[in-house]
Amino acid sequence: GEEEEETDQQRERWGKPFSWQKAWYPMAVVEDLDPGRPAKLELLGQDLVAWVDAEGHWRVFEDRCPHRNVPLSEGRIEKDGTLNCSYHGWRFDGDGRTVAIPQAKDQDLARLLANPRACAATRPVKMLRGVLWVWGESSPDARLESALVEPVLPWELADPDMKDRVASFEWQWGQRDLPYGWEMGLENVTDFAHTAVTHHRVFADRYTDPCPLEMTCLRKATSRKGFAFRIDTVRDVPKEREAGAVNTMEFVPPCYHRVTSTYPSGASVTLINCFVPTKPGRTRQIPAKMILTGTNGELPPSVILGYKLSDIPLPRWLRHLFQPFFVHQDNVFLHEQQAILQLEERKSASTWKKSYWMPCEADKMTIMLRKWLDRNGGIDWIPGIVRDLSAVDDKEFLFDSYRAHTQHCATCKAALQQVTTANRALEYAALLLTSAGISASFVLHGLSESWPLLGGGAALGLGAALTGKVRGLFYKVRYSHQDNE
Protein backbone atom coordinates (compact mmCIF):
# COMPACT_ATOMS: atom_id res chain seq x y z
CA GLY A 1 0.00 0.00 0.00
CA GLU A 2 0.90 3.65 -0.16
CA GLU A 3 2.97 5.15 2.63
CA GLU A 4 1.35 7.48 5.13
CA GLU A 5 1.97 11.18 4.62
CA GLU A 6 4.75 12.51 6.84
CA THR A 7 3.72 14.80 9.69
CA ASP A 8 5.34 18.11 10.63
CA GLN A 9 6.58 16.49 13.84
CA GLN A 10 8.32 13.73 11.88
CA ARG A 11 9.93 16.23 9.53
CA GLU A 12 11.18 18.22 12.51
CA ARG A 13 12.60 15.07 14.11
CA TRP A 14 14.55 14.18 10.98
CA GLY A 15 16.17 17.63 10.87
CA LYS A 16 18.28 19.01 8.04
CA PRO A 17 19.64 16.53 5.47
CA PHE A 18 22.99 14.98 6.28
CA SER A 19 25.97 16.63 4.56
CA TRP A 20 28.31 13.95 3.20
CA GLN A 21 31.08 16.45 2.48
CA LYS A 22 31.09 17.95 5.97
CA ALA A 23 31.96 14.80 7.86
CA TRP A 24 35.00 12.77 8.94
CA TYR A 25 35.84 9.43 7.31
CA PRO A 26 38.18 6.72 8.67
CA MET A 27 40.34 6.09 5.61
CA ALA A 28 43.21 3.88 6.77
CA VAL A 29 44.79 2.14 9.75
CA VAL A 30 48.08 4.00 10.16
CA GLU A 31 49.99 0.91 11.33
CA ASP A 32 49.29 -0.66 7.94
CA LEU A 33 50.44 2.35 5.89
CA ASP A 34 53.98 2.73 4.53
CA PRO A 35 55.30 6.15 5.66
CA GLY A 36 57.92 6.05 2.92
CA ARG A 37 55.46 5.94 0.04
CA PRO A 38 52.39 7.96 -0.98
CA ALA A 39 49.16 5.97 -0.51
CA LYS A 40 46.24 6.31 -2.90
CA LEU A 41 42.82 6.71 -1.26
CA GLU A 42 39.30 7.20 -2.62
CA LEU A 43 36.39 9.05 -1.02
CA LEU A 44 32.99 9.96 -2.50
CA GLY A 45 34.41 9.40 -5.98
CA GLN A 46 37.41 11.68 -5.43
CA ASP A 47 40.93 10.22 -5.63
CA LEU A 48 43.16 11.28 -2.72
CA VAL A 49 46.79 10.77 -1.74
CA ALA A 50 48.08 10.33 1.83
CA TRP A 51 51.73 10.94 2.66
CA VAL A 52 54.07 11.92 5.52
CA ASP A 53 55.65 15.39 5.45
CA ALA A 54 58.94 16.72 6.84
CA GLU A 55 57.50 16.99 10.38
CA GLY A 56 56.31 13.39 10.32
CA HIS A 57 52.65 14.39 9.96
CA TRP A 58 50.25 12.56 7.67
CA ARG A 59 48.85 14.83 4.97
CA VAL A 60 46.05 14.22 2.47
CA PHE A 61 45.74 15.99 -0.88
CA GLU A 62 43.37 15.49 -3.76
CA ASP A 63 45.27 13.13 -6.04
CA ARG A 64 45.90 15.66 -8.79
CA CYS A 65 48.98 17.67 -9.61
CA PRO A 66 47.84 21.24 -10.43
CA HIS A 67 50.29 21.30 -13.34
CA ARG A 68 48.90 18.60 -15.64
CA ASN A 69 46.39 16.61 -13.55
CA VAL A 70 48.54 13.49 -13.15
CA PRO A 71 48.13 11.50 -9.90
CA LEU A 72 50.42 12.59 -7.09
CA SER A 73 50.04 9.09 -5.62
CA GLU A 74 52.49 7.97 -8.32
CA GLY A 75 55.04 10.42 -6.94
CA ARG A 76 57.82 10.11 -4.37
CA ILE A 77 58.41 11.37 -0.84
CA GLU A 78 61.79 13.09 -0.93
CA LYS A 79 64.40 13.24 1.85
CA ASP A 80 63.45 16.85 2.59
CA GLY A 81 59.86 15.77 3.35
CA THR A 82 58.27 17.10 0.17
CA LEU A 83 56.00 15.24 -2.22
CA ASN A 84 57.58 15.02 -5.66
CA CYS A 85 55.34 14.67 -8.71
CA SER A 86 57.07 12.05 -10.85
CA TYR A 87 55.85 13.58 -14.12
CA HIS A 88 57.71 16.91 -14.16
CA GLY A 89 59.33 17.10 -10.74
CA TRP A 90 57.11 19.71 -9.13
CA ARG A 91 57.38 19.39 -5.35
CA PHE A 92 54.86 20.21 -2.62
CA ASP A 93 55.15 20.83 1.11
CA GLY A 94 52.71 19.57 3.73
CA ASP A 95 50.40 22.55 3.28
CA GLY A 96 50.03 21.91 -0.45
CA ARG A 97 52.27 24.79 -1.53
CA THR A 98 54.53 24.21 -4.51
CA VAL A 99 58.17 24.62 -3.46
CA ALA A 100 59.90 23.60 -6.69
CA ILE A 101 59.16 24.00 -10.41
CA PRO A 102 62.23 22.74 -12.31
CA GLN A 103 61.00 24.18 -15.61
CA ALA A 104 60.63 27.76 -14.31
CA LYS A 105 63.23 30.41 -15.05
CA ASP A 106 64.93 31.95 -12.04
CA GLN A 107 63.36 35.35 -12.59
CA ASP A 108 59.87 33.80 -12.78
CA LEU A 109 60.09 31.22 -9.99
CA ALA A 110 58.97 33.32 -7.01
CA ARG A 111 55.96 34.67 -8.90
CA LEU A 112 54.89 31.21 -10.06
CA LEU A 113 55.29 29.66 -6.61
CA ALA A 114 53.11 32.41 -5.12
CA ASN A 115 50.26 31.78 -7.57
CA PRO A 116 47.33 30.02 -5.81
CA ARG A 117 46.89 27.81 -8.87
CA ALA A 118 50.24 26.18 -8.06
CA CYS A 119 48.84 24.69 -4.83
CA ALA A 120 47.56 21.16 -4.37
CA ALA A 121 44.04 20.82 -2.90
CA THR A 122 44.43 19.76 0.73
CA ARG A 123 42.06 17.99 3.13
CA PRO A 124 41.88 18.34 6.91
CA VAL A 125 43.10 15.18 8.63
CA LYS A 126 43.03 13.72 12.14
CA MET A 127 45.00 10.95 13.77
CA LEU A 128 42.63 9.28 16.21
CA ARG A 129 42.81 5.82 17.77
CA GLY A 130 45.44 4.74 15.26
CA VAL A 131 43.28 5.65 12.27
CA LEU A 132 43.79 8.34 9.63
CA TRP A 133 40.55 10.35 9.40
CA VAL A 134 39.93 12.58 6.37
CA TRP A 135 37.43 15.42 5.94
CA GLY A 136 34.90 15.06 3.13
CA GLU A 137 35.89 18.13 1.07
CA SER A 138 38.62 20.73 0.51
CA SER A 139 36.79 24.07 0.39
CA PRO A 140 38.38 27.26 1.83
CA ASP A 141 36.25 26.78 4.98
CA ALA A 142 37.08 23.08 5.36
CA ARG A 143 39.63 23.54 8.14
CA LEU A 144 37.30 25.68 10.26
CA GLU A 145 34.22 23.50 9.66
CA SER A 146 36.11 20.28 10.35
CA ALA A 147 37.27 21.64 13.73
CA LEU A 148 33.62 21.87 14.82
CA VAL A 149 32.85 18.19 14.10
CA GLU A 150 34.18 15.10 15.87
CA PRO A 151 34.69 11.73 14.14
CA VAL A 152 32.15 9.07 15.14
CA LEU A 153 33.65 6.64 17.64
CA PRO A 154 32.15 4.45 20.39
CA TRP A 155 30.68 6.72 23.05
CA GLU A 156 32.28 4.59 25.77
CA LEU A 157 35.75 5.81 24.77
CA ALA A 158 34.86 9.39 25.74
CA ASP A 159 32.96 8.53 28.94
CA PRO A 160 35.15 9.00 32.07
CA ASP A 161 33.02 6.45 33.94
CA MET A 162 33.82 3.83 31.30
CA LYS A 163 37.56 4.52 31.06
CA ASP A 164 38.62 1.68 33.37
CA ARG A 165 36.14 -0.77 31.84
CA VAL A 166 37.42 -0.61 28.25
CA ALA A 167 39.48 -3.80 28.33
CA SER A 168 40.48 -3.48 24.69
CA PHE A 169 39.73 -1.42 21.63
CA GLU A 170 41.51 -2.27 18.44
CA TRP A 171 41.21 -1.66 14.73
CA GLN A 172 42.26 -5.27 14.51
CA TRP A 173 41.59 -6.35 10.95
CA GLY A 174 42.77 -3.34 8.97
CA GLN A 175 41.15 -1.76 5.96
CA ARG A 176 39.69 -3.82 3.13
CA ASP A 177 38.30 -2.64 -0.22
CA LEU A 178 35.07 -4.46 -1.02
CA PRO A 179 33.51 -5.15 -4.45
CA TYR A 180 30.17 -3.60 -3.53
CA GLY A 181 28.91 -0.18 -2.54
CA TRP A 182 28.27 1.60 0.75
CA GLU A 183 24.56 0.84 0.44
CA MET A 184 25.10 -2.93 0.16
CA GLY A 185 27.67 -2.96 2.94
CA LEU A 186 25.35 -1.21 5.41
CA GLU A 187 22.35 -3.25 4.26
CA ASN A 188 24.33 -6.39 4.99
CA VAL A 189 25.38 -5.50 8.54
CA THR A 190 21.94 -4.13 9.47
CA ASP A 191 20.51 -7.49 8.36
CA PHE A 192 21.07 -9.54 11.51
CA ALA A 193 19.15 -12.51 10.07
CA HIS A 194 21.56 -13.29 7.22
CA THR A 195 24.39 -14.27 9.58
CA ALA A 196 22.84 -17.63 10.49
CA VAL A 197 22.59 -18.64 6.82
CA THR A 198 25.37 -16.91 4.88
CA HIS A 199 28.07 -17.58 7.47
CA HIS A 200 27.32 -21.28 7.80
CA ARG A 201 30.07 -23.18 9.63
CA VAL A 202 31.78 -19.92 10.62
CA PHE A 203 29.27 -18.34 13.03
CA ALA A 204 26.19 -20.51 12.74
CA ASP A 205 24.38 -23.44 11.14
CA ARG A 206 22.14 -22.59 8.19
CA TYR A 207 19.77 -25.46 8.98
CA THR A 208 19.21 -25.00 12.72
CA ASP A 209 19.95 -21.36 13.61
CA PRO A 210 17.68 -19.20 11.37
CA CYS A 211 14.70 -17.98 13.39
CA PRO A 212 12.25 -15.07 13.69
CA LEU A 213 13.56 -11.85 15.20
CA GLU A 214 11.90 -9.12 17.22
CA MET A 215 13.28 -5.65 16.43
CA THR A 216 12.63 -2.89 18.97
CA CYS A 217 13.50 0.68 17.99
CA LEU A 218 15.71 2.28 20.65
CA ARG A 219 16.38 5.55 18.83
CA LYS A 220 14.18 6.89 16.05
CA ALA A 221 15.93 7.88 12.85
CA THR A 222 17.32 11.37 12.35
CA SER A 223 19.47 12.66 9.52
CA ARG A 224 22.52 13.37 11.68
CA LYS A 225 22.29 10.67 14.36
CA GLY A 226 21.02 7.66 12.43
CA PHE A 227 19.05 5.08 14.45
CA ALA A 228 19.35 2.13 16.85
CA PHE A 229 17.48 -1.14 17.53
CA ARG A 230 17.41 -3.96 20.03
CA ILE A 231 17.35 -7.46 18.53
CA ASP A 232 15.73 -10.46 20.21
CA THR A 233 15.55 -14.00 18.88
CA VAL A 234 12.15 -15.64 19.22
CA ARG A 235 13.31 -19.26 19.32
CA ASP A 236 16.40 -21.46 19.08
CA VAL A 237 18.54 -18.78 20.68
CA PRO A 238 22.30 -18.83 19.96
CA LYS A 239 24.99 -19.33 22.60
CA GLU A 240 25.38 -15.65 23.40
CA ARG A 241 21.68 -15.38 24.29
CA GLU A 242 21.93 -18.45 26.54
CA ALA A 243 24.38 -16.38 28.59
CA GLY A 244 21.71 -13.69 28.93
CA ALA A 245 23.14 -11.26 26.39
CA VAL A 246 21.12 -8.34 25.04
CA ASN A 247 21.96 -7.54 21.41
CA THR A 248 21.73 -3.98 20.10
CA MET A 249 22.58 -2.50 16.72
CA GLU A 250 23.28 1.14 15.82
CA PHE A 251 24.00 3.18 12.68
CA VAL A 252 25.47 6.70 12.78
CA PRO A 253 26.28 8.44 9.48
CA PRO A 254 28.33 8.59 7.47
CA CYS A 255 30.06 5.26 8.18
CA TYR A 256 29.58 3.91 11.68
CA HIS A 257 27.75 0.67 12.47
CA ARG A 258 28.01 -1.37 15.65
CA VAL A 259 26.56 -4.57 17.12
CA THR A 260 26.87 -4.94 20.89
CA SER A 261 26.21 -8.00 23.04
CA THR A 262 25.82 -6.92 26.68
CA TYR A 263 25.77 -9.55 29.43
CA PRO A 264 24.08 -9.43 32.88
CA SER A 265 27.41 -8.54 34.51
CA GLY A 266 27.60 -5.39 32.39
CA ALA A 267 30.44 -6.82 30.30
CA SER A 268 30.03 -6.48 26.55
CA VAL A 269 31.55 -7.24 23.18
CA THR A 270 31.07 -4.70 20.37
CA LEU A 271 31.85 -5.33 16.72
CA ILE A 272 32.23 -2.12 14.73
CA ASN A 273 32.15 -1.80 10.96
CA CYS A 274 32.85 1.52 9.27
CA PHE A 275 31.94 1.59 5.59
CA VAL A 276 33.59 4.38 3.61
CA PRO A 277 31.90 5.25 0.27
CA THR A 278 34.93 5.23 -2.04
CA LYS A 279 33.13 5.24 -5.40
CA PRO A 280 29.82 3.92 -6.78
CA GLY A 281 29.67 0.17 -6.31
CA ARG A 282 32.74 0.05 -4.06
CA THR A 283 33.42 0.67 -0.38
CA ARG A 284 36.29 0.47 2.10
CA GLN A 285 35.63 -1.44 5.31
CA ILE A 286 37.40 -0.38 8.52
CA PRO A 287 36.39 -2.80 11.30
CA ALA A 288 37.15 -2.72 15.00
CA LYS A 289 36.36 -4.63 18.17
CA MET A 290 35.77 -3.31 21.67
CA ILE A 291 35.55 -5.32 24.90
CA LEU A 292 34.12 -3.83 28.10
CA THR A 293 34.43 -5.50 31.48
CA GLY A 294 31.49 -5.78 33.86
CA THR A 295 30.88 -3.58 36.89
CA ASN A 296 33.10 -5.92 38.96
CA GLY A 297 35.71 -6.51 36.27
CA GLU A 298 34.04 -9.53 34.65
CA LEU A 299 34.97 -10.40 31.07
CA PRO A 300 32.31 -11.35 28.50
CA PRO A 301 31.71 -15.14 28.39
CA SER A 302 32.86 -15.38 24.77
CA VAL A 303 36.29 -14.05 25.77
CA ILE A 304 36.54 -16.31 28.82
CA LEU A 305 35.64 -19.41 26.84
CA GLY A 306 37.95 -18.42 24.02
CA TYR A 307 35.94 -20.16 21.32
CA LYS A 308 36.02 -17.20 18.94
CA LEU A 309 38.93 -17.06 16.53
CA SER A 310 39.00 -13.27 16.81
CA ASP A 311 39.84 -13.60 20.52
CA ILE A 312 42.99 -15.66 19.93
CA PRO A 313 46.19 -13.56 20.02
CA LEU A 314 47.71 -13.89 16.55
CA PRO A 315 50.23 -11.88 14.53
CA ARG A 316 48.54 -8.94 12.84
CA TRP A 317 49.23 -10.20 9.32
CA LEU A 318 47.78 -13.62 10.17
CA ARG A 319 44.53 -12.08 11.40
CA HIS A 320 44.36 -10.12 8.14
CA LEU A 321 44.93 -13.37 6.26
CA PHE A 322 41.94 -15.05 7.92
CA GLN A 323 39.48 -12.22 7.22
CA PRO A 324 38.51 -13.32 3.66
CA PHE A 325 37.23 -16.66 4.95
CA PHE A 326 34.38 -14.63 6.45
CA VAL A 327 34.14 -11.58 4.18
CA HIS A 328 34.14 -13.52 0.91
CA GLN A 329 31.00 -15.34 2.02
CA ASP A 330 29.18 -12.02 1.49
CA ASN A 331 31.04 -10.79 -1.60
CA VAL A 332 29.35 -12.95 -4.19
CA PHE A 333 25.89 -11.93 -2.95
CA LEU A 334 26.37 -8.21 -2.51
CA HIS A 335 28.29 -7.55 -5.73
CA GLU A 336 25.56 -9.24 -7.76
CA GLN A 337 22.76 -7.77 -5.63
CA GLN A 338 23.66 -4.15 -6.39
CA ALA A 339 23.79 -4.92 -10.13
CA ILE A 340 20.39 -6.64 -10.05
CA LEU A 341 18.85 -3.82 -8.00
CA GLN A 342 20.07 -1.18 -10.47
CA LEU A 343 18.83 -3.24 -13.43
CA GLU A 344 15.39 -3.68 -11.85
CA GLU A 345 15.17 0.06 -11.17
CA ARG A 346 16.06 0.84 -14.79
CA LYS A 347 13.65 -1.75 -16.19
CA SER A 348 10.59 -0.42 -14.42
CA ALA A 349 11.67 3.03 -13.20
CA SER A 350 10.96 1.74 -9.69
CA THR A 351 12.91 1.93 -6.44
CA TRP A 352 13.97 -0.58 -3.81
CA LYS A 353 10.44 -0.32 -2.37
CA LYS A 354 9.09 -2.16 -5.41
CA SER A 355 12.15 -4.30 -6.16
CA TYR A 356 12.56 -5.66 -2.60
CA TRP A 357 9.83 -7.55 -0.74
CA MET A 358 10.65 -7.46 2.96
CA PRO A 359 7.63 -8.73 4.93
CA CYS A 360 9.37 -9.91 8.12
CA GLU A 361 10.22 -8.00 11.26
CA ALA A 362 13.84 -9.08 10.77
CA ASP A 363 14.01 -6.61 7.84
CA LYS A 364 13.17 -3.54 9.94
CA MET A 365 16.70 -2.15 10.16
CA THR A 366 17.36 -2.63 6.45
CA ILE A 367 14.13 -0.78 5.66
CA MET A 368 15.11 1.99 8.07
CA LEU A 369 18.53 2.30 6.43
CA ARG A 370 16.95 2.65 2.99
CA LYS A 371 14.50 5.25 4.29
CA TRP A 372 17.38 7.16 5.88
CA LEU A 373 19.25 7.11 2.57
CA ASP A 374 16.19 8.29 0.63
CA ARG A 375 15.50 11.00 3.16
CA ASN A 376 19.03 12.36 2.75
CA GLY A 377 19.09 12.23 -1.04
CA GLY A 378 21.46 9.29 -1.41
CA ILE A 379 25.25 9.47 -1.35
CA ASP A 380 26.52 12.85 -2.53
CA TRP A 381 29.20 11.80 -5.02
CA ILE A 382 31.44 14.32 -6.78
CA PRO A 383 29.83 15.79 -9.93
CA GLY A 384 30.27 13.79 -13.12
CA ILE A 385 30.89 10.43 -11.44
CA VAL A 386 29.77 7.36 -13.43
CA ARG A 387 27.26 5.27 -11.45
CA ASP A 388 27.31 1.99 -13.33
CA LEU A 389 26.92 -0.93 -10.91
CA SER A 390 27.12 -3.72 -13.50
CA ALA A 391 28.58 -6.96 -12.16
CA VAL A 392 31.96 -8.15 -13.43
CA ASP A 393 31.93 -11.24 -15.64
CA ASP A 394 34.85 -12.93 -13.89
CA LYS A 395 33.93 -14.04 -10.37
CA GLU A 396 37.61 -14.43 -9.53
CA PHE A 397 37.62 -10.65 -9.06
CA LEU A 398 35.42 -11.12 -5.98
CA PHE A 399 38.02 -13.29 -4.28
CA ASP A 400 41.08 -11.16 -5.09
CA SER A 401 42.64 -10.56 -1.67
CA TYR A 402 45.73 -8.86 -3.09
CA ARG A 403 43.69 -6.13 -4.78
CA ALA A 404 41.31 -5.79 -1.83
CA HIS A 405 43.87 -5.67 0.94
CA THR A 406 47.45 -6.91 0.56
CA GLN A 407 48.64 -4.24 -1.87
CA HIS A 408 47.42 -1.50 0.49
CA CYS A 409 48.70 -3.02 3.75
CA ALA A 410 52.35 -2.50 4.68
CA THR A 411 52.04 -5.18 7.38
CA CYS A 412 50.85 -7.83 4.93
CA LYS A 413 53.25 -6.79 2.16
CA ALA A 414 56.16 -7.28 4.55
CA ALA A 415 54.75 -10.64 5.70
CA LEU A 416 54.23 -11.71 2.08
CA GLN A 417 57.87 -10.95 1.31
CA GLN A 418 59.01 -13.00 4.31
CA VAL A 419 56.73 -15.93 3.48
CA THR A 420 57.89 -15.84 -0.16
CA THR A 421 61.55 -15.88 0.94
CA ALA A 422 60.89 -18.80 3.30
CA ASN A 423 58.97 -20.67 0.61
CA ARG A 424 61.76 -20.36 -1.93
CA ALA A 425 64.42 -21.30 0.62
CA LEU A 426 62.47 -24.41 1.63
CA GLU A 427 61.91 -25.40 -2.00
CA TYR A 428 65.62 -25.04 -2.75
CA ALA A 429 66.69 -26.90 0.41
CA ALA A 430 64.18 -29.70 -0.25
CA LEU A 431 65.45 -30.12 -3.79
CA LEU A 432 69.06 -30.08 -2.58
CA LEU A 433 68.52 -32.71 0.14
CA THR A 434 66.40 -34.94 -2.08
CA SER A 435 69.01 -34.80 -4.85
CA ALA A 436 71.76 -35.57 -2.34
CA GLY A 437 69.77 -38.51 -1.00
CA ILE A 438 69.20 -39.95 -4.46
CA SER A 439 72.88 -39.53 -5.32
CA ALA A 440 73.90 -41.19 -2.04
CA SER A 441 71.70 -44.19 -2.76
CA PHE A 442 73.52 -44.79 -6.03
CA VAL A 443 77.00 -44.22 -4.62
CA LEU A 444 76.42 -46.37 -1.53
CA HIS A 445 74.39 -48.98 -3.45
CA GLY A 446 71.46 -48.81 -1.01
CA LEU A 447 68.87 -46.63 0.65
CA SER A 448 69.79 -47.18 4.28
CA GLU A 449 72.41 -44.43 4.33
CA SER A 450 70.33 -42.04 2.23
CA TRP A 451 67.11 -42.17 4.24
CA PRO A 452 68.03 -39.21 6.50
CA LEU A 453 68.65 -37.06 3.45
CA LEU A 454 65.47 -38.19 1.71
CA GLY A 455 63.44 -37.80 4.91
CA GLY A 456 64.83 -34.32 5.46
CA GLY A 457 64.03 -33.44 1.85
CA ALA A 458 60.46 -34.67 2.31
CA ALA A 459 60.02 -32.63 5.51
CA LEU A 460 61.38 -29.52 3.83
CA GLY A 461 59.14 -30.20 0.84
CA LEU A 462 56.14 -30.32 3.16
CA GLY A 463 57.22 -26.99 4.65
CA ALA A 464 57.56 -25.56 1.15
CA ALA A 465 54.05 -26.74 0.27
CA LEU A 466 52.64 -25.21 3.45
CA THR A 467 54.33 -21.83 2.97
CA GLY A 468 53.25 -21.92 -0.67
CA LYS A 469 49.66 -22.38 0.46
CA VAL A 470 49.97 -19.49 2.93
CA ARG A 471 51.56 -17.33 0.22
CA GLY A 472 48.58 -17.99 -2.04
CA LEU A 473 46.17 -16.65 0.58
CA PHE A 474 47.72 -13.19 0.25
CA TYR A 475 46.51 -13.21 -3.36
CA LYS A 476 43.22 -15.09 -3.54
CA VAL A 477 40.71 -16.84 -1.25
CA ARG A 478 37.96 -18.53 -3.24
CA TYR A 479 34.58 -19.36 -1.74
CA SER A 480 31.52 -21.29 -2.90
CA HIS A 481 28.26 -21.51 -0.96
CA GLN A 482 27.33 -24.62 -2.93
CA ASP A 483 30.43 -26.39 -1.64
CA ASN A 484 30.03 -25.30 1.99
CA GLU A 485 28.28 -28.40 3.30
Main attributes of the structure:
Rieske Iron-sulfur Protein; eight-stranded antiparallel sheet; single chain; 485 residues; four-stranded antiparallel sheet; alpha+beta
Write up what this structure looks like.
It is a single chain. This protein is α+β, with helices and mostly antiparallel strands and 485 residues long. It has 3 domains: 24-147, Rieske [2Fe-2S] iron-sulphur domain (Rieske Iron-sulfur Protein, 3-layer Sandwich); 155-379, Naphthalene 1,2-dioxygenase Alpha Subunit, Chain A, domain 1, CATH 3.90.380; 409-473. The chain has 14 helices and 19 strands. It has helices at residues 8-14, 106-114, 142-147, 182-190, 195-198, 239-242, 301-305, 316-322, 324-348, 352-355, 364-375, 401-404, 410-443, 451-473; strands spanning 24-29, 39-43, 46-52, 58-62, 76-77, 83-84, 91-92, 98-100, 122-123, 125-128, 131-135, 166-170, 176-178, 213-222, 226-233, 246-252, 256-262, 268-279, 282-292. Strands 12, 13, 14, 15, 16, 17, 18 and 19 form an 8-stranded antiparallel β-sheet that branches. It has a 4-stranded antiparallel β-sheet with strand order 2-3-4-9, with no helix packed on it. β3 and β4 (58-62) form a beta hairpin. α4 (182-190) packs antiparallel against α11 (364-375) and α13 packs antiparallel against α14 (451-473). The longest helix is centred in the C-terminal third of the chain and has 34 residues, at 410-443. It starts with 7 loop residues before the first helix and ends in a 12-residue tail after the last helix.
